[in-house]
Amino acid sequence: MKPITKSSKLASVCYDIRGPVLEKARQMEEDGHKIIKLNIGNLAVFGLEPPDEIVQDMIRNLPNAAGYTDSKGLFAPRKAIVHYCQEKNISGVAVDDVYLGNGASELIVMAFNALLNDGDEVLIPAPDYPLYTAAVALSSGKPVHYLCDEANEWYPDLDDIRAKITPRTKAIVVINPNNPTGALYPDSILQGIVDIAREHQLMVFADEIYDKTLFDGHTHTSIASLADDVFFLTFNGLSKNYRSCGYRAGWMVVSGEKKHAADYIEGLNMLASMRLCANTPGQLAIQTALGGHQSIKELVAPGGRLCRQRDLAYELLSKIPGVSVVKPKAALYMFVRLDAKIYPIADDQQFAYELLAEEKVLIVQGTGFNWEHPDHFRLVFLPNSDDLAEAIGRIARFLENYRKRHA
Q1: Given Cys at both, which of 185, 213, 299, 370 links 176, Cβ 3.0 to 4.6 Å?
Q2: Span between the terminal Cα atoms of the chain, in Å
Q3: pLDDT reading at 18 higher than 70
């Protein structure tokens, strides 16, 4: 038979968070090895469970969850999201501006599908969450990466953004709080991005999935709250703040200058209808989550589990020769830098393979986040303190041997 090949659209798509190194880890597990996984922010596998009131509310409502809902979602959770937007000072949001999805990821892909023609460009941060680069490419667009500056708390470089705008640029992606760096952007940076978007008539895609996972008393500003004359799409959901990854309960909010986006919004409505609706049980968790006790606050407070683990990971990594990391202000990750003079890494995926083979620790290499230099990796600090200390101890031992081999 003639070979059946994958679409050429996939040639520039990668998602190394669940990529080849993970496949190698699965093979090793099948052979009986125990792997410490620091590759993905899947909270439940580390014993971080969703709030009980969410679980109970879903159980009670499950008998009535077998039917399709409105293509945008149930009224009650969408109304709860409108109230949440008001709390975040995002003005002018009505129930009809809220779309529920099978996680924010589905809605991100849908939003790019509705927007992009062949060769249209989207500005995406580097390092990025790789879904954005993949979704733009799959939508026949061109991902263009703007730099985030490690020397300046991983904040977006506004001059680099300006330099990369062309007549084909349609939108800017802002991931705040940031995955993979843990950065939290100040209002001055957000306002700078808004000013650029206004000047060049660009949409802003705002990923705010970690907006409650904040450390050291920091607060989060929604970029859509800073203007009403720019068109914003804001993405959020229950997966991280409410430890409910598997519920696939996410949302997208349309706000700002909507008048001139009527045709695009019609496209969003068409795509929302084509997928019929988001899963109903996940929708049923949203209103209870947003209106209930915000248990994430205890986890991120001084002495809380996530804060303790962040502090421990930062302390242990900082002690390793040639290793540096910007301490995260938010989210669940650290983007760890390896001094190229001490660790002359040519292929960071091979580096990740070697770490896995020698020490049974799974990380994601920096190039998996569209960072062009093979000198970083992302570490998830979700394991409990004992497992985290064990994992970083193994990384330190591996790096010690690596230094000796390449001295």
Answers
A1: 185
A2: 52
A3: no
